[in-house]
Structures are given as structure tokens and as C-alpha cells.
């Protein structure tokens, strides 16, 4: 086509905008984690997901120039075949991109809840379900038509494809799984933070950031209403427009909101100090990575600690700072501090008495 018609222009604009936005957001996330020496498996998976999502979304743009999102009278038969081929590639790369992105979000929660087995087991079940459903979806789509080229070219003589209702049912099931994962990742932090000793304002802030994934499920819910467009044979490419739009937005929101989780140290760098005061009075630059360092110990003994805090812990239980990460005081910590305070007071008292008993030679004559 010589220009973009109908919904094609909107699709190109949305794809271009989110490709730029998601790239910046994910790279900024990796920069923050790298500067804090805290890059983990979830960050690498997020980067892989970004690359696959960009590849997937990039297929939408040439598809639009060949008729995707436009009414049937706007493009030729050859252009329609090309648009269908780009759409075929788009949906496969979308499924593959969805796996590392959602797995990364799940691993982030799993890393926080390292000591809460029921949460980590739930996370692993979610990841396993996601991978299995994604594989089944891709296999179904690859075997939808025979011969293989009939997946995008229905004019091939003898081409046979499954009914469109099967694709709609599969899309509904896959969307339902994604909605469940988004809500699980958003709600599990509530159980994690409930037992952590920190101010309620901080709890609410962290819960809000971790719960941003709900916005991604909003796009999935909207897409559910458009899946019946697969049965619109008379104006097929135009009906695909809304499906593609909300599919792109779904993972774009997941990439953006998933990146925001790592920005807390960056915000504190610009709007407040990230350092924590240590026992020697120095203000050391702590990592302040809440999502990486939080561990839930017990209801009355919760603390924040770095990944290296477990090293030589048996001889260092009285220390309040591990690897420059501030520890939330527990009941036992308060008792320890009280004992140290009493000992320090007694020592100071004896020192003052000793100083008062010293007579400097020649002082009386002066």
C-alpha cells in the first residue's frame, strides 16, 4: 500500500512508541542493577524477553503496510498474503517473548520469598504452567494448516486449516493463564510484606510498585473481547487489528512495570540519600535493593539482609549492617542493643571515675 489506512496507522504509531519506551525502561533497569552489582537471572531473562518482543512487534509494521488493520478493499491479494505471513511470525515470537518476561517477574518474587516455601513452590508451578501452555500454543499454531505455507496463504490448492473457533478457544485459554500469572505476581507481595518490620508507608509503596503488573492484565482482558475477530473471514486483516494492538500493549506494559521495580535505588539517588548510617558513624553507600535483599525469617524475627549476609553469620549476629545493607531490628536485636548500651554506660562511668581520681602533679601550686 502507498499509505496506511484505517487502523494501520494507529498500530504503527503504538508499536513504534512502545519499542522506544520499553527499550529505554529495560536498559535503565539493567543499568541500575549493574551499578549496584546486583544483576541476576531475572534481569537476563527480562533482556531476552525484550529482544524477542521487539522482534515480534517489528513484524507488525510491515504487516500494516501490507494491509493489517485495513479494510479488504485497501490492499491486493498479494499484499494480504504478505500481511498474513508477518502476522504469523508476530504471534509466534509473541508467545516466545511472553515466557522469559513473565518468568522474570516470577523469579523476582521468588528471590524475595526465598524462605517462604509455599510461595516459591507456587511460583515454580506458575512458571511450569506458563512454559507448557506456551509450547502447546506454538505447536498448535504451527500445525494449524497444511501445507505449512497455508498458514498465511489460503489460496494454495488443497490447503486445509482447522476451524477458526479452535484458535479462539486457544486464545481464550492462553489469555486466562496470562491474567492469572499477572494477578499472582501482583498479589503475592502482599503476603511477603505483611510480616516484614517496616513502616506501613514503605509497605504500601513497595506493594504498589510490585502490583503494577495488574495493568498488563487489563490489556489482556480487553484483548479477550476481540478474539472473536478471528472468525471474521470477510474482513480478516481489519479484524486482526485490535487483537494485535492489545497483544503488543500487554507485553509492553509488563516490560515497563517490571522495570519500575528496580528503579527504587535510582529514585533515592536523585530524591534522597541511599546511604545507611553504620556503627562507626560513616555514611556508606548501601545497595538498598529491596527486591533482592529481603528475606522473611519469622513473624517475630524478620530482617533485611544482603545475599552475602549468611557468610560467617554465626560469629556476627550482633552486627547491624551486613554488606552495607541496613538491617531491620528484631526483638532479639533490641535486647542485644540494650545489653550493649548497659555495658557501654558502665564502662563510661568507670572511666569518668578514674579520670576524677587522677591528681596532676603541680596542679595545686598553679
Characterization of the model:
- There is one protein chain.
- The chain has 366 residues and is mainly alpha-helical.
- The chain has 2 domains: 8-268, Rhopdopsin 7-helix transmembrane proteins; 275-356, no CATH class.
- It contains 12 helices and 8 strands.
- The strands form 4 sheets. The protein has a two-stranded antiparallel sheet with strand order 1-2. The chain has a two-stranded antiparallel sheet with strand order 3-4. The chain has a two-stranded antiparallel ribbon with strand order 5-6.
- Strand 3 and strand 4 (283-284) form a beta hairpin.
- The radius of gyration is 29 Å and the shape is elongated.
- The relative contact order is 0.11.
- The model is unreliable at 273-366 (pLDDT under 50).
- It comes from Fusarium longipes.
Topology:
Layout: H1 8-35, H2 41-58, H3 60-64, H4 77-112, H5 117-142, E1 145-146, E2 160-161, H6 164-194, H7 200-210, H8 214-224, H9 236-260, H10 264-271, E3 276-277, E4 283-284, H11 290-293, E5 294-295, E6 303-304, E7 321-322, E8 325-326, H12 331-356
Amino acid at each position: 500500500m502507498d499509505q496506511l489506512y484505517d487502523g494501520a496507522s494507529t498500530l504503527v504509531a503504538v508499536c513504534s512508541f512502545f519499542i522506544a519506551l520499553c527499550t529505554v525502561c529495560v536498559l535503565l533497569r539493567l543499568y541500575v542493577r549493574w551499578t549496584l552489582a546486583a544483576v541476576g537471572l531475572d534481569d537476563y531473562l527480562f533482556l531476552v524477553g525484550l529482544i524477542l518482543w521487539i522482534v515480534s512487534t517489528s513484524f507488525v509494521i510491515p504487516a500494516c503496510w501490507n494491509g493489517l488493520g485495513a479494510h479488504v478493499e485497501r490492499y491486493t491479494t498479494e499484499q494480504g498474503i504478505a500481511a498474513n505471513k508477518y502476522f504469523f511470525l508476530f504471534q509466534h515470537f509473541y508467545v516466545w517473548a511472553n515466557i522469559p518476561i513473565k518468568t522474570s517477574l516470577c523469579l523476582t518474587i521468588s528471590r524475595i520469598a526465598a524462605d517462604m516455601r509455599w510461595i516459591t513452590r507456587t511460583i515454580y508451578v506458575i512458571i511450569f504452567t506458563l512454559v507448557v501452555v506456551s509450547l502447546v500454543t506454538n505447536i498448535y499454531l504451527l500445525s494449524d494448516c497444511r501445507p505449512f505455507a497455508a498458514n498465511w496463504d489460503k489460496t494454495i490448492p488443497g490447503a486445509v486449516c482447522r476451524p477458526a473457533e479452535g484458535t479462539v478457544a486457544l486464545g481464550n485459554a492462553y489469555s486466562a493463564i496470562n491474567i492469572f500469572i499477572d494477578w499472582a505476581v501482583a498479589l503475592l507481595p502482599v503476603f511477603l510484606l505483611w510480616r516484614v518490620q517496616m513502616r506501613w508507608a514503605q509497605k504500601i509503596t513497595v506493594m504498589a510498585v510490585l502490583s503494577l503488573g495488574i495493568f498488563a492484565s487489563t490489556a489482556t482482558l480487553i484483548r479477550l473481547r476481540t478474539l472473536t475477530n478471528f472468525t471474521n473471514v470477510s474482513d480478516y486483516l481489519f479484524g486482526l487489528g485490535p487483537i494485535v494492538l492489545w497483544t503488543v500493549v500487554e507485553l509492553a506494559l509488563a516490560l515497563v512495570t517490571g522495570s519500575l521495580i528496580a528503579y527504587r535505588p535510582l529514585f533515592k539517588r536523585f530524591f534522597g540519600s541511599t546511604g545507611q548510617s553504620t556503627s562507626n558513624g560513616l555514611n556508606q553507600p548501601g545497595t538498598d535493593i529491596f527486591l533482592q535483599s529481603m528475606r522473611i525469617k519469622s513473624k517475630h524475627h524478620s530482617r533485611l539482609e544482603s545475599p552475602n549476609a549468611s557468610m560467617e553469620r554465626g560469629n556476627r549476629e550482633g552486627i547491624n549492617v551486613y554488606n552495607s545493607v541496613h538491617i531491620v531490628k528484631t526483638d532479639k536485636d533490641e535486647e542485644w542493643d540494650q545489653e550493649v548500651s548497659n555495658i557501654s554506660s558502665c564502662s563510661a562511668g568507670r572511666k569518668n571515675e578514674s579520670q576524677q581520681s587522677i591528681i596532676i602533679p603541680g596542679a595545686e601550686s598553679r
